[in-house]
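Two proteins follow. First one:
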Amino acid sequence: MLLTTQKLQLSIATLVQNTVEEKHKINKRLGNEVDGQPQIKHFRDDYKYLEGTSSFYKIHTIQKTWEQAKKRCALEGATLFYPEDQNEVDVVLAHLKETQPMYAWIFVGISSKLAKGVFTTVDGVAIRHIYNRWGHGEPNDANGEEDCVILRKEGTYNDEKCSNKFPFICKKTLQSLKWNEECNTPYLDYKYNVDLGRCYKFHLHPLTWREAVEACDAEQAYLAIINSQQEASHLVNITASAPKDKVQGWYLRGAVHLGFNYDTTEEDWRTTTGETLEQAGYAMWGNYQPDGGESERCGSMFYNGHLNDIGCEGHRCFFICEKENELLSLFDDRFGI
């Protein structure tokens, strides 16, 4: 039965690869400049495409500070929205009023954080070159503390404290959208492993464990979970081939964040999906690990593949995100493999 399952998985993986290659051939023959989802105007399920601006938008209802909002949009492969012209104001505010009518204002990607009183967008465009209708008496920089900008539902700007929290919108233009066919995702750095039927991305920007969880989630993935020795070996190979030595600055070398932590309720190490390490299929700890006690409640992997406990907040290091291949998952569910 095991051999039959492995053959079936290989056949499905081959089908996926052949489908991708055939699509590339068709696009090339037709002279298409974009592949896959851009043609059907799809970025992510949680983004809405608006024809009036040829862009995708996501309304974030969990309120954040301006910097947090900017970071979240960047993690999703988008930018913190700001209106380029009157048309975009009209289109986006109409969408906001239709879907979230209770919100009277949102943060936008405009601030004077670089130079007091000089308002520019998150991508460096001076406000005079875009939509710039201020409310009466604004900006007034109350108490010298208002360097970020909100857009009111009537279409006017007001300057606000960057540390205040507001809803916000992330934006992705159709023109900027590229597609990773093998992993069925807009994030191009994910690489498909045919044997495991999953996609992986090694992140070279060191973060804390909790920040890494957020970064993977923003890409509609999850912090990698090892389910077998084969998968552990693959993560070791990914780690070895990544250009880690080029990364400067302070971070914890020798370890990579993974998706498990210590569950104080269960008093056991569990994956972020709730399984014990043994249930998940891999529990090979490094020598004398875990050894950190209450100060190291989150999980990582040494570069050799052995597990290690690590601080959830204090240790910045590389990490690996994992994403299911949706076509393979469909077959897995159907055939019970």
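Second one, unrelated to the first:
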Amino acid sequence: MLKKKHDMFCRQECYRATDVKLPANMHSAWGVGGTQPDPAHNRLLDDGTIVPLGKPVQNKVATTLLYNEFIVYDVAQVNVKYLLQMKFNHKY
């Protein structure tokens, strides 16, 4: 889930696993993957949270990451609300 208010100004987008240095004005990194939930099926909650839903689709950007991931460098910023167990069936 993404909070709409944090979309552009607080986190750094990265497209390679080697992008590990975070700029001083950012608090986290968004690893943009080659596979992502279909944005056409996103849900917007009343508090502005965007919940990605839908079947995986190929992202149109060039990236070496398989899927979207969020990297937080300060664990004090993490507040686990949901825990998911997933099984990946890769075709690779």
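SUMMARY FIELD: Confidence is low (pLDDT under 50) at residues 1-9. Residues 2-77 form one domain.
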